[in-house]
Amino acid sequence: MPTEPESTPLLNVSRLNVARGTKRLLRDLTWSIQPGEHWVVMGPNGCGKTTLLRSLTGFIAPSSGDITLLGAVYGETDWREVRQSVGLVSSSLQPHIPGGEIALETVISGRYDQLDFWGESTAADERAALALLRKLHVGAIARREWAYLSQGERQRVLIARALAARPRLLILDEPCAGLDPVARAEFLAAMNGLTDDVHGPAVLLVTHHVEEITTGFTHAMLMAKGQSVAAGPLRETLNNTNLSTAFAAPLRIRRTAKGWHLTSVSG
Ligand SMILES: Nc1ncnc2c1ncn2[C@@H]1O[C@H](COP(=O)(O)OP(=O)(O)OP(=O)(O)O)[C@@H](O)[C@H]1O
After folding, report:
1. Is 22 touching ligand 1 by the criterion CB < 6 Å?
2. How far is the CA of 223 from the centre of ligand 1 (A)?
3. Which fold has domain 1-85+170-183+209-267?
4. CA distances from 14 to 32, 75, 88, 221 (A)
5. Which partner for 226 in 27, 99, 205, 248 could form a disulfide, CB atoms 3.0-4.6 Å apart?
6. Inter-helix orientation angle 151-164/181-196, to 10°
7. Cβ(20) to ligand 1 under 6 A?
8. 146-178, pLDDT tens digit by residue?
9. Domain ranges in the chain?
């Protein structure tokens, strides 16, 4: 993969279009992420968030437009190589983790970019994996099997797994889905640790809930009907007008000491 200067955008998407049959899943989407930024992507069901993530990670081919990720240009570079520097945490990974695998092994498998890893791990691998689990406040379950982990623990093990590969971009696709309030609060505390780490990866969070936008996030993109409705610094972008446009309903957003709150304005 090419090396790039510090100031190069981590991601540059220009006029990205994805069509399947007659349906346009993404329309002329333009977006960039600079080093040091942590982004939230929001939008109604079916607006194209997953399609965008799948395009960025090379699992869907764009119909037109350009993607430059970590200095590599889509179509010119082997995207499997680019993917090694992108951590993806998505519920779609969960069925692929063997039930009998202990958390430590799941994390180590991320370092080798393999699911169900059967290779020889070293003592150094184990120490590094344990440090990651501790960082995410789940060190105590290091030797517990996947089948017995709670949803909240699983999500954090998957983040540790993604971090084991030392990604430059970490994509969290609705990581709080299915978590109870306590597990969610614990998860959000761990996510705060990630965005606070100046040596850590850029974080891209896809969520439906503004309450999950922790203080370290700097930017937001709102999507609707395959397009970017608004994108930019978080506090400017998350306003009543942009959110109401994206969700096609009157919404009011507030920010308090406890975080963001979104309410529907009836009548
Ligand atoms: N291969 C495909 N062929 C046709 N339509 C598709 C295909 N893949 C996705 N779609 C449609 O494209 C739209 C965008 O889907 P996508 O999964 O990207 O939305 P999303 O924003 O992630 O939604 P959600 O918030 O519900 O997860 C949806 O209407 C979906 O049904």
Report:
1. no
2. 13
3. Rossmann fold (3.40.50)
4. 8, 14, 22, 15
5. 27
6. 20
7. yes
8. 999 988 889 889 989 998 988 999 999 998 887
9. 1-85+170-183+209-267
